[in-house]
Design goal:
Blueprint (H helix, E strand, L loop, with lengths): L2 H28 L2 H22 L5 H21 L4 H11 L14 H9 L6 H11 L5 H8 L3 H18 L11 H20 L10 H17 L3 H14 L25 H16 L5 H13 L9 H14 L3 H15 L1 H13 L7 H13 L3 H14 L3 H19 L1
Helix pairs in contact: 1-2, 1-3, 1-5, 2-3, 3-4, 6-8, 6-9, 7-8, 9-10, 9-11, 10-11, 11-12, 11-13, 12-13, 13-14, 14-15, 15-16, 16-17, 17-18, 18-19
Length: 418
């Protein structure tokens, strides 16, 4: 590989790993989302042009922030020729002294400031989540829309309105004071949870996971626990660590999905499991826990079973019973039904899932149909299982999941022919 190719590869690597950090700092320095996003693209364009010629800078992220800031000032100056009101803006940006730091251990780092800004209570809850997923994590509008089960155009309008609200209302780009922080925490935890989910099980695309997103969610989770060690922040971190501990066992070497009961548990990360279980105990001991801690407790039961057959399904169902009281939802009902099927048999679980679907809930939720298909398969009701798998496949936007479901259908056909 030539020097120019090395530099281009470095630009690509920095974009993948650090573009959102650079964006967060540019938003702080420029005070405007759209201007910062434009500056980010300009900075990376400059890097593509200059790094192969001049070499990769010692601190690529600081270079990008500086380049982006100057590009933004130049852009505002050009526009000021046609809009006099922008002249003062350009002057203020030029005179501002940038604080370009990348202290990963700092609670007040720019990404944490950004996530609290995106989750400001002046914004509607759905806008808080959409804006954070877009700006903090760099998810596409299409991927976010898939997570929200809505249209990309609707999601895009939501994000535009949220940015305008932040600008027009003068919402500060800062971490709230300790007095205000607890009330703001729920929205932030929900956003971090959604970010982790997108990384742990991508909503669409060619790969099962997006490791950079789940890793970032865990980093943010650790920062939140350091900043405000509330039980639910601790519980969410535990939940993410326990799920992350299974990452390497969740797919084959060529990216094919492996279900929980088929995973090689010797590949599970025991350090993450130990940390996660300790955090679960810490959160439960507070007696002020909520849904994240309960989900983490369920994950801990799975993590502590040396074999799938050793899983304490009675305890899992009991925890889901508590979770349903704390946070009733059709998805929790579905997960409980799957656990009941393991405890009491597939017929018991199928009856619960059918009741959910008859009620009109989760009719467009892929996992409801794939769970139902699996129980029908286990009961030997092949034709009904194939129909349920077909419905799940039609709703699936992720390639590894689709291939897994298609293999199940093929196996049913083969067994029927045999």
């Amino acid at each position: 590989m030539t020097g120019a190719e090395d530099a281009r590869a470095m630009v690509d690597a920095v974009y993948r790993s650090d573009s959102r950090r650079v964006l967060a700092t540019l938003i702080r320095l420029l005070g405007d989302f759209d201007l910062a996003e434009e500056a980010l693209q300009d900075a990376f364009t400059a890097a593509v042009e200059r790094w192969p010629r001049d070499g990769v800078p010692a601190n690529p992220r600081a270079w990008l922030v500086s380049a982006g800031r100057f590009k933004a000032i130049d852009a505002v100056r050009r526009r000021a020729r046609f809009d006099a009101s922008l002249g003062k803006v350009a002057e203020e940006l030029d005179q501002a002294t940038p604080e370009v730091t990348f202290d990963e251990a700092s609670v007040n780092d720019d990404r944490l400031r950004l996530i609290f800004t995106c989750c400001h209570p002046a914004l509607p809850p759905d806008a808080q989540i959409a804006l954070t997923l877009r700006e903090v994590c760099g998810l596409t509008t299409e991927a976010i829309a898939s997570a929200f089960l809505t249209q990309p155009s609707t999601l895009a309008q939501r994000i535009v309105r949220a940015k305008a609200k932040i600008r027009d209302a003068g919402i500060p780009y800062e971490v709230p004071t300790l007095a205000d922080l607890p009330a703001r925490l729920d929205a932030v935890l929900h956003v971090v949870y959604l970010v982790f989910n997108e990384g742990y099980l991508a909503s669409s695309g060619a790969t099962l996971t997006r490791e950079e997103l789940s890793g970032e969610a865990i980093r943010l989770g650790r920062l939140l626990v350091e900043l405000l060690p509330e039980p639910e922040a601790v519980g969410l971190l535990a939940l993410m660590l326990l799920h992350e501990s299974r990452r390497t066992a969740r797919a084959t070497s060529d990216g094919e999905l492996i279900l929980l009961d088929q995973q090689d548990r010797s590949q599970w990360n025991q350090e993450l499991i130990a940390e996660g279980c300790a955090l679960v105990e810490q959160a439960l001991a507070s007696r002020r826990f909520g849904p994240y801690t309960l989900q983490a407790a369920i994950a801990a039961v799975h993590a502590e079973a040396a074999r799938a057959a050793d899983t304490d399904w009675a305890q899992v169902v009991g925890l889901y019973d508590v979770l349903l009281r704390v946070e009733p939802s059709p998805v929790v009902e579905l997960n409980r039904a799957a656990a009941v099927a393991m405890r009491d048999g597939p017929e018991a679980g199928l009856a619960l899932i059918d009741a959910i679907l008859v009620r009109g809930d989760l009719t467009d939720y892929q996992f409801a149909h794939s769970a139902r298909a699996d129980l029908l398969r286990r009961l030997g009701r092949a034709a009904e299982a194939r129909a349920a798998y077909a419905r799940a496949i039609a709703l699936t936007q992720q390639d590894p999941e689709r291939r897994f479901l298609e293999r199940r259908v093929a196996e049913l056909r083969e067994s029927h022919q045999a």
